[in-house]
Design a protein that fits this description.
The chain is mainly alpha-helical. The chain has 6 helices and no strands. α2 runs antiparallel to α5, α2 packs across α6 and α4 runs antiparallel to α6. The mean pLDDT is 90.
C-alpha cells in the first residue's frame, strides 16, 4: 500500500474536519474573550450569534479540503465535506432552537 493511499480514507478527513472548527472556536475564545468557555458560548447564544460564529469557525475546513484535493486524497476530502455538513446541521439546530 502506497503512503498516499494509506491516508486516503474518509475518517482521515472526518476527524480533522470536526476538530478544526472546535480548535478555531477555542482560539477565538482565548484571543477575544475574558470569561470561561461556557460563558463565551452562552454570551453568543443570548445575542443570537452562536450559529454565525460556528459558521465562521468552519472556514479553516476549506483550506483542509483544498490540501486534500491538491494531494489527490479525494476520500479524505469527502470526509472534510461530511464533517462540514455535520457542523452545518448543528448550526441549523442552534439557530432554530
Amino acid at each position: 500500500m502506497k503512503a498516499k493511499e494509506k491516508f486516503d480514507h474518509m475518517l482521515y478527513g472526518l476527524v480533522p474536519g470536526i476538530v478544526l472548527p472546535v480548535v478555531t472556536m477555542a482560539g477565538f475564545w482565548l484571543v477575544r474573550f475574558d470569561g470561561g468557555f461556557f460563558e463565551f458560548l452562552s454570551h453568543f447564544q443570548n445575542v443570537g450569534m452562536l450559529s454565525k460564529v460556528l459558521s465562521l469557525c468552519t472556514i479553516p475546513n476549506l483550506l483542509l479540503f483544498f490540501i486534500f484535493i491538491w494531494t489527490n486524497r479525494t476520500f479524505s476530502a469527502r470526509g472534510v465535506i461530511f464533517a462540514t455538513l455535520v457542523v452545518g446541521f448543528v448550526m441549523l439546530v442552534l439557530k432554530f432552537s
